[in-house]
């Protein structure tokens, strides 16, 4: 392998580590979203269309991951910005490669991951897919408290369905939380930003 000058290598690594602009992401035509946010950790992005009539948001969460790992996205309805108390959707793969989702409220830093309620309504329950080295979770959420600002969390770690293992507890895995304003974000279609 040819040796690259140090400056060139630094540039390459910088480019590789930066999350792509969420507006450049591709979705199938029946999964179009009006807004997005490039999240500050784990290369993840959030996409959504907010429906004020019924206070719901059609959401996609996308994050890169190895096929032998899991990703999760959720909302903390009670205790501010943090893991414990969050209702989360975990996407992982079975040995066959089939993608499954688990919904749970994280009751502690060693959660039981019991597949059950999220603690908020999902009029369209979550599904997930794995393609191009990334998981995408699709879900429609009735925004808790009819509030367009929510404390959101996301995560990535090792393990497959039925054998989810703990995520790392350093670096970006401790920075993966953010208050999201569903009326803000980046407009994916500036000329078409109203409600259709
Ligand atoms: C949500 O709040 C808005 C503004 O206060 C209100 O107009 C709307 O009816 C509420 N929607 C639901 C589903 O509670
Ligand atoms: C969790 O429960 C839902 C609804 O019954 C089901 O579709 C899903 O496959 C379950 N997930 C796991 C990981 O068992
Ligand atoms: C909420 O409103 C949107 C826009 O009118 C509609 O497409 C969607 O089906 C509604 N969702 C629910 C769960 O009623």
UniProtKB/TrEMBL annotation:
GO terms for cellular component: membrane. Residues 1-18 form the signal peptide. Residues 42-157 form the DOMON domain. InterPro entries: AIR12_DOMON, DOMON_domain. Pfam families: DUF568. PROSITE patterns: DOMON. It is found in: Membrane. Keywords: Membrane, Signal, Transport. Its main location: membrane. This is DOMON domain-containing protein. The lineage of its organism: Eukaryota, Viridiplantae, Streptophyta, Embryophyta, Tracheophyta.
